[in-house]
Design brief:
It is built from 5 helices and no strands. The protein has 97 residues and is an all-alpha fold. The chain has one domain. It starts with 14 loop residues before the first helix and ends in a 14-residue tail after the last helix. The mean pLDDT is 91.
């Protein structure tokens, strides 16, 4: 059986797809998975384009979104805005009432 490698970046071509992909990754609560998902979207958009849209240096983006990255809240906010998505906060458990 012949298999091909899967690259999520190939499918992240709209804000809706990006939002669904990031929401699923963030829902898991695994920081490495979140960072990897952000990296996938950045690759789909192109680092040069992301650099222009965020005003951040390419080195900053590669470092923040790389394998050992840990983006600051400022970087995360700029990157998400460039992706055309935003974070939303809700209770982790339903509020009784």
């Amino acid at each position: 059986m012949k298999t091909t490698s899967f690259d999520a970046a190939e499918y992240l071509d709209s804000p809706d797809m990006i939002a669904a992909y990031l929401a699923a990754a963030f829902e898991e609560g695994d920081q490495a998975l979140m960072r990897a998902a952000l990296n996938d979207v950045a690759r789909a958009r192109g680092m040069s384009e992301l650099q222009k849209e965020t005003g951040l240096k390419r080195e900053t983006l590669y470092k923040a979104l790389g394998e050992k990255g840990n983006p600051t809240l400022d970087t995360l906010s700029k990157v998400l805005a460039a992706f055309g998505v935003r974070l939303s906060i809700e209770p982790a458990t339903p509020i009784a009432g």
